[in-house]
Amino acid sequence: MYSAGTESFLRQAREIQDEELRKFISRITGFLQNQDFGNETVDSLQRLFLIVSATKYGRKIDGKFLELLQTVLHLPKTPEQVQFLCAAILRETSLCNDLSVSWDNIQDTKLLSLAFSIVLAQGSKKAVVEAFGQRVVKVLEGRLPEGQNARHLLPLLSKIISFLPMSLNEDQINLLSKRMVDWLRYASVQQGVPQSSGGFFNPRARQPGPIMEVDGTATTDFFTVLSVGQYYTEDQWFNMQAFSMLRKWLLCYGSNGASSPNSDDKSEVDGSVMSMVSVTSTSSRLLPPKERLREKAFEYCQRLIEQSNRRALKKADGELQKACLIEAITIMDIICRQDSSYVYRSLSCLKNVHSRISGDLSYARVLLPIAQFFLNHSETAAVDSEAVYRHLFTRVPAQLFHSPMLAFEFIQFCRHNIRFFTEKLSIFRQNFPNLFKFLAWNSPALVADYMDLLPALLGTDTALEIFHLLLDLPCVAVALDVQLRSALTPLPERTPVDPSLKPATCLEAYRHPDYRALFQYLLRVESAPGDPGRLTPIRQLLGSMASSPRVVQCAESVPVLLQLYFGVVAEFADGALANKLVLAILERSEQLYGIPAFKAEVYRVMSSQLSILCKLHPSLVVELSPQLLEFSGTVTNIQSKEDLFTDVVWTIGEYASVAHDKRCTVEQINRFFEVLEAMLFEITQLRPLASIPKYSPRAIAVLMTALTKLASRSQDLIPRVSLFLSKMRTFIQNPAVSSTYSPEDAEAILTRATELMNLLKMPSVAQFVLTPSPEVSSPRFHRDTNVSLPLAMKAASQILERGASSVPG
User: Fold this and answer.
1) What percent of the chain has pLDDT over 70?
2) What is the C-alpha to C-alpha distance for residues 403 and 656, in angstroms, rounded to an integer?
3) Among candidates 298, 328, 385, 588, which has minimal Cα distance to 469?
4) How many CB atoms lie within 10 A of CB 262?
5) Cα 68 vs. chain centroid, distance in angstroms?
6) Residue 289: pLDDT above 80?
7) N or C: which end of the chain has fewer CB within 10 A?
8) Tens-place pLDDT, residues 121-140
9) Average pLDDT of the chain to the nearest whole number
10) What is the spatial distance between Cα 81 and Cα 37, in angstroms, rounded to a whole number?
11) Is residue 64 predicted with pLDDT exceeding 50?
12) Does this model's pTM top 0.70?
């Protein structure tokens, strides 16, 4: 994350000892007491700031030194850099030291701003923040002394209203609204004069030139933040600062009782045209301060949109155009929410902006506030904005998934409007494969955001496809990487692809005709259900990038989302959907991306959720009996998918009963029994091999229990199970087997075999314990760790033993 040099500096700052720190502070004290503000002092203060800020643990610093920093901070001749460093150190140490900041008598506006930053770091009470606000307003109301600059006060005011909007009364709000109108609309259009550096008076050198536009032409309209000059006047600085805090000001104080941000726009539609006429025809000077500020702010935003059409001569000015365009559209949206008469004045303008920038991907971030505007106001103006949303959800994620800033803003936009999307915008769910590209590329930064988005994307029509997409998310990450590298590879450098040969690399596969369709399906824009089994060849090929950090991080996010997925789906899944999901779990257990840790975590989640789905819909065991029998009858599943295998066997033993499904006949139970019996025999038979494979004691215990449960429901099977259980001691005591199990594991297997065998000696008791009726199992008058199947088995076993040992062998 950091360079080697930076890491070294941070390590030194964190590891410095208290004694060494005291000596270092003593050295700085000497510099400051002598008012030596040279380079050595600046370097020392910078290092001290690094020391106190590089660790989350506070450094206790001598109070006299902190008082000295405050004294230096207030000295008139202290250089600006030293002042900033002193304030920064005081901010970092204010919470760990009893620091009292005196600001009441500060006249210098820059010092007042620095003092407020220290007060905020201390977590000061509302009264202190309110007092600061009153002080700032008082200064802005009057005329500053000669040499003072009010430019530092607007950022300070912006911070104050962020923390305590109610610190200003109505008169002060109106006064500052009038001032903001002047700052925004009536700044000079002539450049500022540079400060004199001495020498002879030169009238031509001091003659200010006109303010320019970003394309190099002289401005013919009022000054804005996009106006360009070599030097700026004081009112021009106020103009730029006022625009920077305009959004916050309108959100805090722009609304009134007639048009609040949460007012119902529908009720204002009928009178909006008349309102628009009255606003445009009445002199803005006759409007109340808040409404006049709204009018001038709207004009300012229109001017910015006009300026954004100009071709900037400098790249930096081009980036500033985009940033100002985003801010202008956002402010117009706020104004329209506060007064719907502005909606009609905004629509044509924003439609033109959208038409102009929709083909330029560098303006993609601007599309978000435009879409937000139409989301908020298209119903009021009866405008169809489907094209705006479709362009946003189809093209932007597909082509700009690799932009971290856009990904964050796009997902925040979706979260902010999630209710509207789920209720009124079908394209949101329809384009969910596109949305997951942001997650595949930017994991794990967006996992928490997708925890909020995923439930909104799930429905009976999308649940199954999203399940497959989550499991294939690492493949999507690889495919995006390949797509990006292929696009960046110049045509002359691309290796020719022979369609008759199997591709050797991912890049070759991306251009290979046999694999092209598979890549297109992985990178699809819209929902398109398909057979996930056809992706098996490409999963194997993409496995070469399994060690890529991006792919590994993407894979780590899948189990978390998968757990949430099943929790949401379980709330609305009917029997048909649950049937498809269980079948998909069994099928996809063989079709996962080749990262061992990823597979293990996915098996763990799927196994636990399969049991929950079958508990909600027990008839699945009968309906999916062929698939369950095939899965539980495969020996390799025990070792490669132990968690999933164990839960499948447990599910069969628990729900293969006529009590859960009338279709579960004796013949069906016998088929389950024969498959599980063959499996248990396979893993417990003694072989003349040098090394006998070790199987999990948990899997063996679950197999024994499932067989016993099935036998209790078809009592003709009891002799076969009892005979099998009686041979477990022989199996465990075999030297080749005993060497593979710990004494605790061997004892657990024997104990379970003993308890089950003793339970089967009384078939009616066995059925009562292993397959209790709902009347017995449902009422739980208390929850206790002792209410469990092992306790019932142990109790029955002890009753039957009657003090005598009865161990199978």
Assistant:
1) 87
2) 52
3) 588
4) 6
5) 45
6) yes
7) N
8) 777 678 888 888 888 888 88
9) 85
10) 9
11) yes
12) yes
**Cis previous bond, 444, omega within 30:** yes
> What single-letter amino acid sits at 254?
G
CB atoms within 10 A of CB 299: 15
Longest dimension (CA), the chain: 118
Cβ burial, residue 756 (10 Å; 0-12/13-18/19+): buried
- CA 307 from centre of chain: 35
Average pLDDT over residues 716-729: 90
The neighbouring-strand residues paired with 212 are: 218, 228
* 785, pLDDT greater than 90: no
CB burial readout 204-222, b (16+ within 10 A) else e: eeeeeeebbbbeeeebeeb
CA pair distance 99, 59, nearest whole angstrom? 13
> What's residue 218's pLDDT?
92
Inform me whether the pLDDT recorded for 270 exceeds 50: no
DSSP string, 375-412: HHHHHHHT---HHHHHHHHHHHHHHHTT-HHHHHHHHH
* H-only helix segments in 543-633: 549-572, 575-588, 596-616, 620-623, 625-632
Please answer whether residues 760 and 721 qualify as being in contact, where contact means their C-beta atoms are separated by less than 8 angstroms. yes
Please work out, in degrees rounded to the nearest 5, the angle formed at the alpha carbon of residue 498 by the alpha carbons of 492 and 499. Answer: 130
Q: Provide CB contacts within 8 A for 263, sequence distance 6+.
A: 337
Q: How far is CA 204 from CA 74, 199, 200, 216, in A?
A: 39, 14, 12, 22
What does the pLDDT read at residue 264? Answer: 40
Question: Using the 8-state DSSP alphabet, how is residue 309 labeled?
Answer: T
Angle between helices 549-572 and 463-471 (to 10 degrees): 160
Rounded-to-integer distance, Cα 46 and Cα 58, Å = 17
Q: How far apart are CA 253 and CA 173, in angstroms?
A: 7
> Is residue 463 a contact partner of residue 581, using CB atoms and an 8 Å limit?
yes
Q: Show the tokens assigned to 75.
A: 């000295």
DSSP letter at 228 equals B
Task: For residue range 609-639, list pLDDT tens digits in order.
Answer: 999 999 999 999 999 999 999 999 998 899 8
**Segment among 93-97, 272-276, 537-541, 680-684 with least mean pLDDT:** 272-276
Note the pLDDT of residue 150.
75
Q: Which of 373, 209, 195, 217 is nearest to 301 (CA)?
A: 373
Amino acid in the structure at residue 307: Q
H or E, element range at 19? helix 18-33
> Measured in Å, how far apart are the chain's first and last C-alpha atoms?
62
Q: Which helix (H) or strand (E) holds 329?
A: helix 315-338
Query: Which residues 6+ apart lie within 8 Å of 488 measured at CB?
Result: none
* Cβ–Cβ under 8 Å, residues 471 and 565: no
- 340 touches 264 (CB < 8 A): no
The closest of 594, 393, 563, 554 to 467, measured between CA atoms, is 563
> What span, in angstroms and rounded, lies between the C-alpha atoms of 485 and 487?
5
Name the phi and psi angles at 278, rounded to 5.
Answer: -65, -35
